[in-house]
Amino acid sequence: MPIRTVMKANEAAAWAAKLARPKVIAAFPITPSTLIPEKISEFVADGELDAEFIKVESEHSAISACVGASAAGVRTFTATASQGLALMHEILFIAAGMRLPIVMAIGNRALSAPINIWNDWQDTISERDSGWLQFYAENNQEALDLILMAFKIAEDERVLLPAMVGFDAFILTHTVEPVEIPDQEAVDEFLGEYKPKHAYLDPAKPVTQGSLAFPAYYMEARYTLWEANENAKKVIDEVFAEFEKRFGRKYRKIEEYRTDDAEIIFVTMGSLAGTVKEYVDSLREKGIKAGAAKLTVYRPFPTEEVRELAKKAKVLALLEKNVTFSVGGALFQDFSRALINQEERPILVDFILGLGGRDVTFRELDQVLEISRKALAGEKFEEVNWIGLRKEIL
Amino acid sequence: MAESPFKAEIERVQREYSEKMTPGAIVYIPGSSVINKTGSWRVFMPEFHREKCVRCYLCYVYCPEPAIYLDEENYPVFDYDYCKGCGICANECPAEAIVMVRETK
Ligand code: SF4
Ligand code: SF4
């Protein structure tokens, strides 16, 4: 029987890792993800998880050890956040390029300077071009589920890409919520054992991994990464469907909420989606035709689903906790790209909010609504809006 | 000069590696770097004087390529396909049996 209990997203991530039975975990503690390696090292020490826990001196070493382990042919897990992820940067590209299905949990946190340990998405967004798959959890249950599914998606022969699952720092990492821990047998059946065909160590059949590619080969190697990302779209749908069948929880690349006759749809990711759905309920009560949409999958970018979503609204309000300079936010860039050649497209309005752990409440969302309604009414509006900015101290 | 003992292997690697891109650009026959003939980098080449050689194998041990093999009588043999002319062997040789000379084509 699955156990229903309460736990933080960090613990949920550690439990997901335990259920997936990785053979090697290498991680360095960093706020707000520290509890993940702590909990996993407990599992290993208590004999509850039969794995090698490698204590390393930095995140650069953590991911390097994971690359080594995954290249040796075993299921591998790690966790980090913010500056730690940034320190992994060069090896992230190597892991993807070598097509190693490592899974990593991230407590989404702001990047320095100034030093800030609180939530936004700048850390993972900054790695969006690394080739890793990216998932964003709305709550602690999703953190657990998405990590389990990330293993299955990453290890699929059509994909073979590393995957990161992000959940908001403190809002989720340190907040206790009800979580259902699935049965070990059910997870074993769902995931199966990782049996790599491409990358593994066998003294009888030696291979060279991560070797040099001359200009005659490099482009093709990069293209296969592109292809794998495209293939992942279908695989993600399949795995989400199978997960729903086995565990009863439904996932979509883009989860829509009350979008059917909506004029304004608020689009976001992570824990903010919960707040936005509540907000949409409150607007509906006032007769305002609003809807919400949440990206669970950010890489591969769900272009087709975005186009479907775009057909339903006159204004898409993009709520994001990251900055892409001169553009606005990453979602604004991605949505613009997805819709640019479409005949009919909604107005896109970008909102940068909640950076570095600033609260996003109904008050901030009221400002989002006001600007979105201006855009809807055909009035002048700013394409990029910083919500909750304290201009008076500038 | 002796023919490279990797000749057959090199041909196999060239054939297989150039046929199909594998996931992660993995090379299923390791040692493909032997295709990379570093001999073309050379400006100076080691000239070997067999009569002076005391067969101490210091050159063999120190060559970073490694471009030195031993023949049946345990004298060093230089593989000029891979010798990049760094001069380490000449520097290490206690018997001055190796002299670096400017290469002329
Ligand atoms: S010159 Fe350098 S590369 Fe060439 S044989 Fe001597 S040590 Fe080796
Ligand atoms: S170092 Fe000089 S003496 Fe020793 S084996 Fe090489 S060539 Fe001969």
Question: What does this molecule look like?
Answer:
The complex is a heterodimer of chains A (394) and B (105). Chain A is α/β, with parallel strands linked by helices and 394 residues long. In chain A, 41% of the residues lie in helices and 19% in strands. Chain A is built from twelve helices and 15 strands. In chain A, the strands form three sheets. Chain A has a seven-stranded mixed β-sheet with strand order 3-2-4-5-7-6-12, sandwiched between helices. Chain A has a six-stranded mixed β-sheet with strand order 9-11-10-13-14-15, with helices on both faces. In chain A, helix 3 runs parallel beside helix 4 and helix 6 packs across helix 8. Chain A starts with a strand and ends in an 8-residue tail after the last strand. In chain A, 50% of the residues are buried. The model of chain A has no long low-confidence stretch (mean pLDDT 97). Chain B is of the alpha+beta class and 105 residues long. Helix content of chain B is 20%, strand content 15%. In chain B, strands 1-4 form a two-stranded antiparallel sheet. In chain B, strands 2-3 form a two-stranded antiparallel sheet. The two termini of chain B are 16 Å apart. The mean pLDDT of chain B is 86. Classes of the chains: A alpha/beta (394), B alpha+beta (105). Chains A and B meet through helix 8 of A and loops of B. The structure holds iron/sulfur cluster (SF4) (2 copies).
Spatial shape of chain A: globular
Provide the gyration radius of chain B in Å: 16 Å
Strands ordered across the widest β-sheet of chain B: 1-4
Give the rounded overall mean pLDDT of chain B: 86
Task: Give descriptors for this structure.
heterodimer, A: 394 residues, alpha/beta, seven-stranded mixed β-sheet, six-stranded mixed β-sheet, 12 helices, globular, B: 105 residues, alpha+beta, two-stranded antiparallel sheet, two-stranded antiparallel ribbon, 4 strands, elongated, binds iron/sulfur cluster
Outline the secondary-structure elements.
The complex is a heterodimer of chains A (394) and B (105).
Chain A: E1 3-7, H1 9-20, E2 24-27, H2 35-45, E3 52-55, H3 59-72, E4 76-80, H4 82-97, E5 103-108, H5 122-125, E6 133-136, H6 140-155, E7 163-168, E8 177-181, H7 184-191, H8 215-247, E9 254-257, E10 264-269, H9 272-285, E11 290-295, E12 297-299, H10 303-312, E13 315-320, H11 330-339, E14 347-352, H12 362-376, E15 384-386
Parallel strand pairs in A: 2-3, 2-4, 4-5, 5-7, 6-7, 10-11, 10-13, 13-14, 14-15
Antiparallel strand pairs in A: 1-8, 6-12, 9-11
Chain B: H1 7-17, E1 44-48, H2 58-62, E2 68-70, E3 76-78, H3 88-92, E4 98-102
Antiparallel strand pairs in B: 1-4, 2-3
One iron/sulfur cluster is lined by residues 46, 63, 65, 67-68, 78, 83-89 of chain B.
